[in-house]
Amino acid sequence: MSYHPKILDAGEQDIKTIEEYLAQYSRSAVRRFFESMKERIRSLRTMPFSCPEYELDPFFRRMVLGDYILFYSVDEKRKLVIVHRIFHHSRNIDRHMSEYRESM
User: Fold this and answer.
1) Domains of the chain (ranges plus CATH)?
2) Phi and psi dihedrals of 17, rounded to 5?
3) Secondary structure class of 4 (helix, strand, coil)
4) Are the CB atoms for 78 and 94 separated by under 8 Å?
5) Beta-ladder partners of 68
6) CA 32, 33, 36: angle at the middle one, nearest 5?
7) pLDDT tens digits for 7-66?
8) Contact 51, 41 (CB under 8 A)
9) How far apart are alpha carbons 84 and 70 in whole angstroms?
10) Crossing angle, helix 9-23 and helix 27-43, to 10 degrees?
11) What DSSP designation does 104 have?
């Protein structure tokens, strides 16, 4: 059975921030990032548990997208892959994810 992707508002904002940042340097970098992200999210439709759990909070799974890490969860009942956040690997991800989880 196929799962459907859903990107939450926080994830959409992260995507916009990434696009603005990459666009300063190269439109082709933006295009490559989006193509990679779409392809990887599409792969979750049939294999939602293929990425490892986030070690500090197993509610989330994490997917590496080049220099970025995408955090998602799986809703078995509704057959959804829910994209929560996307961070550059150099950020304090543990702190940001902790703050995000508290705000949920």
Assistant:
1) 4-103 (3.30.2310.20)
2) -65, -45
3) strand
4) no
5) 65, 88
6) 80
7) 999 999 999 999 999 999 999 999 999 999 999 999 999 999 999 999 999 999 999 999
8) no
9) 8
10) 150
11) -
Per-residue HEC secondary structure of 27-96 comes to: HHHHHHHHHHHHHHHHHCCCCCCCCCECCCCCCCEEEEECCEEEEEEEECCCCEEEEEEEEECCCCHHHH
The rounded distance, in Å, linking the Cα atoms of 81 and 3 is 6
pLDDT of residue 104: 86
Report how far residue 35's alpha carbon sits from residue 65's, in angstroms, rounded to the nearest whole number.
11
Query: What's residue 1's pLDDT?
Result: 73
Counted residue by residue, the chain has a size of 104
Residue 67 burial (CB count, 10 A): 12
